[in-house]
Design goal:
Shape: elongated
Strand order of the largest sheet: 5-4-9
Strand content: 25-35%
Number of domains: 1
CATH architecture: 3-Layer(aba) Sandwich
Oligomer: single chain
Largest sheet: 3 strands, mixed
CATH superfamily: Ribokinase
Radius of gyration: 19 Å
Helix content: 10-25%
Order of helices and strands: EEEEEHEEHEE
Number of helices: 2
Length: 124
């Protein structure tokens, strides 16, 4: 059932199924930048990063937030772990107006996590 505002702008409900997790983005110096010629790591290699950001996300979670922020009635259906990353994700979705009543907690599996490495020359 669509929800209508006082200006008669109607918003239909939306259920989002998709991935959600905790992400860490780290910048590594560009190859040949004068700092020991760093590069994206090869298997089993360590390359020092210069900046680390952590944030909740995932394609499904990002879509839910994008629809909820302008006023959409959005429910997120996803499973996350009983861990700090799951707590952070549920809180962030709720803070952006997403209904998290359908988020399930899994005691056996951790919340999805990913490390994103970005060469410093790349702008995001």
């Amino acid at each position: 059932m669509p929800r209508c505002s006082s200006q008669q702008r109607c918003v239909a409900g939306l259920i989002t199924l998709g991935s959600a997790g905790h992400y860490r983005r780290c910048w590594v110096p560009q190859h040949g930048s004068g700092r020991g010629a760093a590069h994206l790591p090869r298997p089993a290699e360590t390359v020092a990063g210069e900046r680390l950001q952590t944030f909740p996300g995932g394609k499904g979670a990002n879509q839910a937030v994008a629809a909820a922020r302008p006023g959409g009635d959005v429910k997120m259906v996803v499973r996350v772990g009983f861990d700090a990353f799951g707590d952070t994700l549920i809180h962030a979705l709720g803070s952006d107006g997403v209904d998290t009543s359908r988020v399930q907690r899994d005691a056996d599996e951790p919340t999805r996590a990913a490390l994103i490495l970005v060469e410093q020359a790349v702008r995001i």
